[in-house]
């Protein structure tokens, strides 16, 4: 289970919990640890895809005016 859902202190920036989970997911993949590639290269290869989509949806919902009523996605 992502660490985003565990009890944490509240962050001031939106989507920071998902961003932190995406970062730790990328740093713990075999792509980074064993192959020595950068996290950016591993992200392009498709690692941690679900968290990447969740982070994208959360950032996109910041710009969406309907989010005032529905709340942010992935938050």
How many strands, what sense, and barrel or not for the largest sheet? none
* Overall 3D shape: elongated
**Fraction of residues in helix:** 55-70%
N-C termini distance: 15 Å
Contiguous helical run count: 5
Strand fraction equals under 5%
Order of helices and strands: HHHHH
Low-pLDDT windows of residues: none
Counting DSSP E segments of at least 2 residues, the number of strands comes to 0
Structural class: mainly alpha
Mean pLDDT: 81
Rg is: 14 Å
Structure in words:
With 75 residues, the chain is mainly α. Helices cover 56% and strands 0% of the residues. The protein is built from 5 helices and no strands.
Please outline what is shown here.
The chain is mostly helical and 75 residues long. It contains five helices and no strands. The radius of gyration is 14 Å and the shape is elongated.
